[in-house]
Design a protein that fits this description.
With about 260 residues, this protein is an alpha/beta fold. It contains eleven helices and seven strands. It has a domain of about 130 residues: Vaccinia Virus protein VP39 (Rossmann fold, 3-Layer(aba) Sandwich). Helix 5 links the parallel strand 4 and strand 5.
Length: about 260
């Protein structure tokens, strides 16, 4: 995927809110080494750095475009341009933080214990992932993919939800944790603009499909999805679009 930081940050306030909610649920302690997995454009990494100014913070990000944006937003952070799926650090961290990133990786049954192994005993793992994949915003992407001349090019992208329920992650992390806190929040996001839910998904999940297509076919796919999603999320009397969005959070302390 080629990430567009400007597209992603169109709704930066709404996207930042769960990241801050996760950050504020991390107990007060004094980490020396912090990794931000999927650091994106650095707007959250900067807040991590501000909360723990004495720590060494490393932003790990697989998109060159996002790393370039992140280095501008948070120049006092160490940046590592690498695929999260291939992340094999030589050291362990006091805090591993990941906001809206790990859902892009497969096999969570192996992934989450592996990430927790990279936390020092007594350290913390803090993760937020979207769990909105059964909402019309995301279901209609798959419907569009399977009902058009582009089907053969994109149908392999129509997969089950990449994020499991809270109990799944509790069962994975509890044996490795002294304390574990898992919860879900559904934010009622009030969006402005023309077809804003399409613009929202174009900054993330829809990008997977658009990257496979080109030219008129790419534009036709976006337009077809846009028509479907505009009907699913009509504007209210004030001209706003209400977009409920569910997210899954977890904060776990590694066993000492």
């Amino acid at each position: 995927m080629v990430w567009d930081p400007q597209q992603y940050l169109k709704f930066s306030g709404h996207r930042l809110r769960p990241a801050v909610d996760l950050l504020m649920r991390i107990p007060d302690f004094a980490p020396r080494e912090i990794a931000d997995l999927g650091a994106g454009a650095g707007n959250v990494t900067r807040l991590i750095r501000e909360r723990w100014p004495d720590a060494t913070v490393t932003g790990v990000e697989g998109s060159a475009e996002m790393v370039a944006a992140g280095r501008k937003a948070a120049p006092d952070v160490q940046w590592s341009h690498e695929d999260l799926g291939q992340w094999r650090p030589a050291k362990r961290y006091d805090l591993i933080y990941s906001n809206a990133a790990l859902h892009w990786l497969p096999n969570h049954a192996a992934l989450f214990p592996s990430v927790m192994e990279k936390v020092v005993p007594g350290g913390m793992l803090a993760v937020q992932m979207p769990r909105n994949f059964l909402a019309p915003s995301h279901v209609l992407i798959g419907e569009t993919a399977l009902n058009g001349p582009w089907r053969s090019k994109v149908e392999h992208l129509v997969t089950p939800s990449p994020v499991e329920g809270p109990a799944f992650y509790h069962d994975l992390l509890a044996p490795m944790s002294d304390n574990i806190d898992i919860w879900e929040t559904e934010y009622l996001q009030v969006l402005e603009g023309e077809n804003p839910v399409k613009e929202w998904t174009k900054g993330a999940w829809l990008t997977r499909y658009l990257d496979v297509l080109a030219g008129d076919e790419k534009a036709a796919f976006e337009a077809a999805y846009g028509m479907r999603v505009a009907k699913a999320y009509p504007k209210n009397a004030a001209g706003q679009t209400l977009f409920p969005f569910r997210r899954l959070f977890m904060v776990a302390q590694r066993k000492g």
